[in-house]
């Protein structure tokens, strides 16, 4: 192997002006270490300052006068070397989604540097729950209060954080020793998800795939063995056994000597899910999650790199696991908004997974009960291969679904948030000691205005998107900036019951307690889950039947199985329907389907009540019928008509500034520059806005937006590149920030 003389280096500072490569000479003593992706120290700027950089290219050709090329000071040994295909991937991400090369490199790198690994210990229950209960009762009789405290905690949660438990439960060393000596617990270091179930206890046998599952797995495996690499979409209702199909394919890929990445949304990355993988694949898997420290993540990606594991399971960031011989990337619940990065570069995991697969000779499997329109459109057009799983794997009857028209309730003088039907069913469940979930569809909720008599919703006449009410009594469109006065009476029916809509979880909890005084109620929303582990705590309390009713936002519809839940009530399905965002109907369909999927997962047959002012809306009808294709057809009509993704592409341009005037001026300049660019290049792109963002001011920063629509993604990329250049050279944007988001998933 011959060594190269020069390295292109990107300086590790997130600064636009330094976002280019610099050439340095490679001293002979470092030639063997100077590979693409290596972390180096180089002299930079005045004086003898040395700073960090990464090698992104190697060559024997000097690009400038040799005398001006400085040598690399040193190559940092032991630092993670980024795989060269990941460097290319970073470059592709930067080009495709915007941002600097540094932003992109930071995205694909495991962790910046080797962080000292802080030991984190867990207390893990090793006895079955029934036995634990007996021990607990015995200790309670003997009045061993400290033992009772920790045993009780273990009954609630099978894994406890060591330091946290010792502190909050006030447990002494001898108590821990007693638990260990009696084989009630085991202490484990660091890895949160090491298989806590004793091997001999986990006699859970591998399931035999049913015909549908087997046929899908066989087709995919066959394609793989014959070298046909493509993207698959498995459309299967919740509980249809997608995970079993994944595992079947994974074992084939691993057996062939390749590695697998499995992406699961953080919220669904529960102990139960992870444990199924452990039971099948043992210790050759690893987990990433956001609760881990940088050190722990670094540690896990090092294990992947060294070939100690075959399977990495985690949320979006697990996509960049530095496997040497990647064979397969699985993205479960591919429609989830969390697969889109919220920070620059705002990449989508599905797109990046396909690119990484292409670069490394791997393939991709997407799975969902409610595929994104983007993915489904691609399978209709043949880009993806589509498979359907139509039956629940464990014979459970689908729930009975009631759609309640809230306008009728008002006519019958029922002003409560509970329809007569829902109230009746809640009371019945309480009598039968079964459980109830009440779901407030609040996602993306932004104060739309509707009439409670006829259901009319105030919409922008230019964008067909709901207007948002503001404190100054005006209604505003956050796409185009259109404004009108808040009406006093409904323009459609003349009723005076027209108002901004809003029902918070706290309010619902209060009303539940008032209406059903004997019921035990738990609430789950961003307030009650702020603390570490709060989310899990509420869910396990509910799973252990410590409450009759769980009230919550979309958080409650995922992750856990609750065998006693036989009723799901959706308080106001409309809330997400008018979120002021073109994906609102799609979200509503997804949320309603998921919520309905929670009812009657076991032996008790389930019922679902969907309360709405728009029982005729197609996303409510098709969710109630479980008919995805019908929903897809209807929604695509709207997207095509309005040129919204996936019928076209949208680029969001966000200008931020501390000073409102600067933000205003900045976005005006962007608008003018855009108009000129579009007319000179004879493009047919459509500009929408400028407008204040729906979050018009955040943390004292003003936010203004422009949307650009075009059928051709590459034209939007060219526009982004043009604006990036214009922004840094024109001098019109002092004090402004600029961000891009392609086909956004969120409102801005
Ligand atoms: P999904 O991922 O589509 O939600 P899962 O793979 O989690 O579905 O399957 C739901 C439940 O059904 C799980 O408990 C799983 O073990 C079980 N299951 C799936 N396939 C089979 C099968 N062929 N035979 C028996 N049980 C199955
Ligand atoms: Zn009306
Ligand atoms: Zn508008």
Low-confidence stretches: 191-203
Query: What small-molecule ligands were found?
Result: adenosine-5'-diphosphate, zinc ion
How would you classify the helix and strand content by structural class? alpha/beta
Question: What is the CA-based Rg, rounded?
Answer: 28 Å
What is the average per-residue confidence, as pLDDT, rounded to a whole number? 86
Helix share of residues?
25-40%
Total of helices = 21
Between the first and last Cα atoms, what is the distance in angstroms?
Answer: 52 Å
Largest sheet, strands/sense/barrel? 7 strands, parallel
* Quaternary organization: single chain
Shape, please?
Answer: globular
Arrangement of strands in the largest sheet: 11-12-10-13-14-9-15
How many β-strands, per DSSP?
30
Tell me the strand percentage band.
Answer: 15-25%
Short overview:
It is built from 21 helices and 30 strands. It is α/β, with parallel strands linked by helices and 748 residues long.
Summarize the structure in words.
The chain has 748 residues and is α/β, with parallel strands linked by helices. The protein contains 21 helices and 30 strands. It has a seven-stranded parallel β-sheet, with helices on both faces. It has a six-stranded parallel β-sheet with strand order 16-26-25-17-24-23, sandwiched between helices. Strands 2-1-4-3-5 form a five-stranded antiparallel β-sheet, with no helix packed on it. It is 34% helix and 22% strand.
């Amino acid at each position: 192997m011959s060594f190269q003389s020069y390295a292109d280096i990107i300086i590790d500072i997130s600064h636009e002006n330094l976002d280019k490569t610099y050439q340095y000479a490679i001293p002979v003593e470092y030639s063997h270490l100077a590979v693409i992706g290596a972390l180096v120290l180089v002299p930079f700027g005045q004086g003898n300052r040395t700073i960090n950089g990464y090698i992104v290219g190697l060559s024997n050709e000097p690009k400038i006068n040799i005398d001006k090329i400085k040598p690399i000071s040193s190559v940092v040994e032991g630092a993670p070397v980024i795989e060269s295909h990941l460097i290319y991937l970073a470059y592709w991400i930067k080009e495709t989604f915007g941002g600097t090369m540094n932003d992109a490199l930071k995205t694909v790198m495991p962790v910046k540097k080797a962080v000292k690994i802080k030991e984190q210990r867990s207390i893990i229950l090793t006895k079955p729950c029934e036995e634990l209960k007996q021990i607990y009762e015995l200790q309670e009789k003997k009045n061993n209060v400290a033992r009772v405290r920790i045993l009780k905690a273990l009954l609630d949660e099978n894994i406890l954080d060591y330091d946290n438990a010792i502190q909050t439960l006030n447990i002494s060393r001898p108590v821990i020793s007693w638990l260990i000596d009696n084989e009630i617990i085991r202490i484990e270091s660091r890895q949160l998800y090491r298989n806590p179930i004793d091997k001999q206890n986990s006699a859970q046998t591998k399931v035999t795939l049913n015909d549908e599952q087997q046929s899908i797995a066989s087709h995919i495996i066959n394609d793989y063995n014959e070298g046909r690499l493509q993207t698959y979409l498995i459309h299967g209702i919740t509980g249809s056994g997608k995970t079993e199909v994944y595992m079947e394919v994974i074992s084939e890929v691993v057996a062939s000597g390749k590695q697998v990445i499995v992406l699961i949304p953080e919220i669904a990355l529960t102990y139960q899910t992870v444990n199924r993988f452990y039971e099948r694949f043992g210790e050759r898997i690893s987990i990433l999650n956001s609760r881990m420290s940088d050190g722990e993540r670094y540690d896990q990606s090092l294990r992947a790199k060294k070939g100690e594991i075959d399977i990495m399971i985690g949320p979006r960031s697990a996509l960049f696991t530095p496997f040497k011989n990647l064979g397969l990337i699985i993205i479960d619940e591919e429609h989830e908004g969390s697969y889109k990065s919220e920070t620059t570069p705002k990449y989508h995991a599905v797109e990046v997974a396909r690119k990484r697969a292409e670069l490394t000779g791997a393939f991709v499997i997407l799975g969902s009960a409610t595929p994104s329109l983007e993915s489904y459109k691609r399978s209709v057009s043949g880009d993806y291969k589509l498979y359907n799983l139509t039956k629940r794997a464990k014979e459970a009857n689908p729930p009975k679904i009631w759609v309640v028209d809230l306008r009728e309730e008002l006519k019958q003088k029922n002003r409560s948030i509970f329809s007569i039907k829902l109230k009746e069913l809640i009371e019945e469940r309480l009598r039968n000691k079964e459980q109830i979930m009440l779901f407030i569809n609040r996602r993306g909720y932004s104060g739309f205005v509707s009439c409670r008599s006829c259901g009319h919703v105030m919409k922008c006449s230019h964008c067909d998107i709901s207007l948002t009410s503001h404190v100054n009594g005006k209604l505003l469109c956050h796409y185009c900036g259109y404004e009108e006065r808040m009406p006093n009476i409904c323009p459609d029916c003349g009723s005076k019951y027209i108002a901004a809509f809003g029902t918070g979880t706290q309010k619902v909890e209060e009303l539940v307690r008032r209406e059903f005084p004997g019921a035990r109620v738990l609430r789950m929303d961003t307030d009650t889950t702020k603390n570490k582990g709060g989310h899990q705590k509420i869910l396990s309390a509910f799973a252990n039947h410590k409450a009759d009713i769980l009230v919550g936002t979309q958080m409650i519809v995922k992750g856990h199985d609750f065998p006693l839940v036989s009723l799901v009530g959706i308080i106001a399905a409309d809330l997400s329907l008018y979120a002021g965002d073109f994906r609102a109907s799609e979200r509503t369909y997804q949320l309603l389907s998921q919520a309905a999927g929670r009812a009657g997962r076991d032996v008790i047959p389930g019922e679902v009540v969907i309360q709405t002012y728009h029982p005729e809306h197609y996303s409510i009808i098709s969710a109630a019928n479980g008919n995805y294709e019908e929903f897809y057809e209807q929604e695509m009509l709207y997207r095509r008509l309005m040129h919204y993704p996936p019928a076209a592409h949208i680029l969001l341009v966000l200008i931020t500034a501390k000073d409102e005037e600067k933000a205003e001026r900045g976005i005006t300049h962007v608008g003018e520059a855009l108009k000129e660019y579009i007319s000179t290049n004879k493009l047919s792109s459509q500009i929408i806005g400028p407008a204040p963002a729906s979050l018009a001011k955040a943390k004292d920063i003003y936010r203004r937006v422009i949307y650009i629509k075009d059928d051709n993604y590459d034209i939007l990329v060219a526009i982004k590149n043009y604006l990036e250049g214009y922004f840094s050279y024109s001098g019109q944007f002092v004090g402004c920030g600029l961000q891009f988001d392609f086909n956004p998933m969120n409102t801005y």
